[in-house]
Structures are given as structure tokens and as C-alpha cells.
Write a structure and sequence with these properties.
With 290 residues, the protein is an alpha/beta fold. The chain has 10 helices and 10 strands. Strands 1-2-3-4-5-6-7-8 form an 8-stranded parallel barrel, surrounded by 5 helices.
């Protein structure tokens, strides 16, 4: 199972382009998502499966960080995707366009069968779930606690807009509309309830680095533990945003040490204010990210 603390950047790469896959793998992305879904036209999916399989086989040392976004379970491609890639031992699976927890449980059964068939430990392939891409899924974002294999939840706005028949998911000023901000919040809350990592969605304008810095910093403040990327140029910005600074680490350690030196107390005076147990919990969580 991958280290949840090293899931800062998740870089998509189209599965039908060996060149782009190689470029993504050479990047400092924590996770590379070899994409068999939206980035690949229907007629190219057989080719993409072979390219992704060969890429996994050719990069055994990198496999823990090489995940595959398969096609959604409500279409005809998922089992073909898994049959092609599981012999090459992908590091994990991204499941898109779910309708609820039942899709994760169904995928778990499929993965167990393929793991057993190919000599892998059953349950060894982790999963990240896109939990807001269908209208129905929005009502089930809190249902993933102890869901098999799930280590992270993320969200998306484009397919959700399509699912509800919206002409756009943006306000006039370019910000997300209410429904899509709700999707973001439900993903964050669902991940917290499930005790897994929440991953922020993509920024489509990969050239706007200043905007990305601001968005990634806000995502971390809000409680997300990483962010999806669509271009290698975004990766280092995302990694930096989700890496605690030396000052943050020092302050968190001070808070932990203060409580350790005063066992049993509920509050402690600190720098003119009061610290309580939630402050200690947040400090401990930050230190686990180091």
C-alpha cells in the first residue's frame, strides 16, 4: 500500500501515448495516472491498454507510483481494462463516475479475482475514487468508511455538469458555481469521514502557475492532502504547496512537546492565546506529513 503522505501530486497522462507516459514518469509526480478513460478515444482504447501494460512492464521500480484510471463500471470497457493491465501489476486504480459505494465493492471483487489469477496478494491494489461525477454519487459521498481498498477520494466538475444537464459549471467571474463547490465540500467531508486522503481536482489552465499556487495553497488549508494535475509543469507547484514548511514543522513540534510536557491538561497557554486538543490533533497530523 502506498504511503498516504506521498500523494501530493497525481499527474494524468494519456494511455495511448508512450511518449507522454514516459514524460509523466520522469516527472517528480508522487502518482502518475495512466489514463484509459477520458484521455483516450473509444477507437484507441485497445491500443491504450497495450501501451499501458507495456509501460508498467518496462518500469518495475516505478510501479508503486504508476496507477491506472480505468473506464467506468457502467460501460463496456472496465473488465477489458483490468484484464489487460493487472498482469503488469499497476500500483493502484482510479475508479471514475461511480454511483456509490456499491461500485467500489464491485471493483474490489474484480480486482481480487485478477490478483489471485496473477499471483498478487489479494487486496494489494489500492483505489482512489472520483465521487462527484454523477448526480446520484453526490448523495453517497459519506458512504466510503471502511470501503475495500479505498485510500483517497477526489472530485470532478466536468462530468457532473454533464450528468445534470448544465451548460456550464462556472460563474460569470470564472469561479465554480454553487453545485460544484458543494461537490468539492462533500468530497472533503466524505474523505474525512472515511479517514482517507482528500485530493483536489485539476486546474485546466496549466499555464497559469500563479493561480495554481493560490488554489493548491487554499486546498491544503481546507484539508485536502494533494491535487490532480494535467501537465508536468504543475507537479512541482503542487508538491511544494502540500509539503509542510520548516516553520510549520517547528511550530507543530512545539505544540506536541508542550502537551507532552503537561500530560492530562486540556488547554495550554501559548503565545498569548490558548491551545486545546484540536490544536494538538492538527499539529500531530501535520507532523505525519513530514
Amino acid at each position: 500500500m502506498p504511503d498516504l503522505l506521498k500523494m501530493r501530486s497525481w499527474l494524468f497522462a494519456p494511455g495511448d501515448s508512450a511518449r507522454k507516459l514516459a514524460k509523466a514518469i520522469a516527472s517528480p509526480a508522487d502518482i502518475v495516472l495512466l489514463d484509459l478513460e477520458d484521455a483516450v478515444a473509444t477507437e484507441n482504447k485497445p491500443l491504450a491498454r497495450q501501451v499501458v501494460h507495456d509501460c508498467l512492464q518496462a518500469n518495475p521500480a516505478e510501479r508503486p507510483r504508476l496507477w491506472v484510471r480505468v473506464n467506468p463500471l457502467d460501460g463496456p470497457h472496465t473488465l477489458r481494462d483490468l484484464a489487460a493491465i493487472m498482469p503488469a501489476h499497476p500500483g493502484g486504480i482510479m475508479l471514475p463516475k461511480v454511483y456509490g459505494r456499491q461500485d467500489v465493492e464491485r471493483l474490489d471483487h474484480y480486482l481480487s479475482a485478477f490478483e489471485t489469477a496473477h499471483g498478487l496478494a489479494e487486496g494489494s491494489t489500492p483505489v482512489i475514487v472520483l465521487v462527484t461525477e454523477t448526480a446520484e454519487a453526490m448523495f453517497h459521498t459519506g458512504d466510503y468508511k471502511a470501503a475495500p481498498r479505498v485510500v483517497a477520494l477526489t472530485w470532478g466538475a466536468e462530468d457532473l455538469a454533464d450528468s445534470i444537464g448544465a451548460s456550464t459549471n462556472r460563474n460569470a467571474d470564472g469561479s465554480y458555481g454553487f453545485t460544484y463547490e458543494l461537490a468539492r465540500s462533500l468530497c472533503l467531508l466524505g474523505a474525512a469521514a472515511a479517514e482517507v486522503a482528500a485530493i483536489e481536482t485539476i486546474q485546466g489552465d496549466y499555464r497559469n502557475i500563479d493561480s495554481l499556487k493560490a488554489r493548491a495553497a487554499k486546498a491544503r488549508r481546507d484539508g485536502f492532502r494533494g491535487m490532480l494535475a494535467i501537465h508536468p509543469a504543475q507537479v512541482e507547484v503542487i508538491n511544494a504547496a502540500f509539503t509542510p514548511t520548516a516553520e510549520e514543522i517547528a511550530e507543530a513540534q512545539t505544540i506536541v512537546d508542550l502537551f507532552a510536557a503537561n500530560p492530562g491538561v486540556g488547554t495550554i497557554g501559548y503565545q498569548g492565546g490558548m491551545l486545546d486538543r484540536p490544536h494538538l490533533s492538527r499539529a500531530q497530523q501535520l507532523l505525519r506529513q513530514v
